[in-house]
Amino acid sequence: MALSRVPGEDELYVGGIFTLSRKNTLADTGITHVISVLKYDFKDFEDWEKYEHLSIEVDDVEDENLLGEFERSGSWIEEGLRKGKDDHKGSVLVHCAMGRSRSVTIVIAYLLRRYPQHTVDSALALVREAREMAEPNDGFMEQLHLYKEMGCPHDIDSQPKYQRWLYQKEVGLALAAGMAPDTVRFEDEQVQEESREGKQVELRCRKCRRTLATSPYLINHLPKPVVPPQQSSTGPIASLDRVLPPQHTACTHHFLQPLSWMRAELEQGLLSGRLECPNVKCNAKLGQYIWQGMKCSCGVWICPAFSLQKGRVDEVVLRAEPAQVPGSRPKAGGIRSPPDSKSRRFEKM
């Protein structure tokens, strides 16, 4: 399969690197622009000057950052399709080594950007209509979903979710090397997004009542469903319903995002340590942090883990979950911010 035309109104093609050696095929499809999504020296290809060329040098590995290229590649494809040669519309070929992962990812990102009605799955299905082998790796699929979740913005670099994603990659690399990250991203010092709806709570030190965190900085985690064991065929028929063990409300820890009151401890560069109340007159031990992660009492693994023991903090409800009226939409409201923050009102992470 040399190259495949993506179904639709655009003259957009996807293929592998050997497509470039098929001059007749490129001429027949009227290719005017080529995006190469791989690391390669193209000096051996003849007539290379015929094409407008964009090179994106990435490997086909899950931790490669292709998301940061989506705006550049998307706008370049749009321009290439709009303007070819001699006032005719152009035809764009996006290729990698096999036309399976990297190039398909760039094409899907363009479809999401150009046609907002598409989801990641529907865009992939469209490409597969012409190229059944299309299969972005799991890391690229995650990046596509994040891109769609952000609304396919033109200014990807300024997006809080993208910045958080980049930071998580840095943390992962540091932990893989057995070290704590060089820098710590304190979430209450970052630009926040829209306010969360529903129940809002505040965690306070049980000893001195100092506010420690509010809802946007809590990590909600749910235990995995457990299937009850199958009973003997001679006994009563076992329930087929998947049930949750009754331990989530009995979790012994609250898990948080890193907050600025933890600065003195976290900037020591240690992999683990204690978390104490930021009130200097209190200094009660509240919990711990472990960059490599820890397993909650409910069985869910949290990594990295910044945890407060439930027995040492109080959970105060600031706004209860509103009763839902059929057909109505819940209203967003303000919440209290944790201490040592620059703003007294925060929005959703």
UniProtKB/TrEMBL annotation:
Residues at the catalytic site: C96 (phosphocysteine intermediate)
GO molecular function: protein tyrosine phosphatase activity; protein tyrosine/serine/threonine phosphatase activity
Positions with biased composition (Basic and acidic residues): 339-349
GO cellular component: nucleus
Enzyme class at the top of the EC tree: hydrolase
Keyword Hydrolase appears in the UniProt entry: yes
All residue ranges annotated as the Tyrosine-protein phosphatase domain in the record: 4-153
Keywords: Hydrolase, Protein phosphatase
Region (Disordered): 322-349
EC number, UniProt record: 3.1.3.48
Family membership: Belongs to the protein-tyrosine phosphatase family. Non-receptor class dual specificity subfamily.
Protein name: protein-tyrosine-phosphatase
Organism: Calycina marina
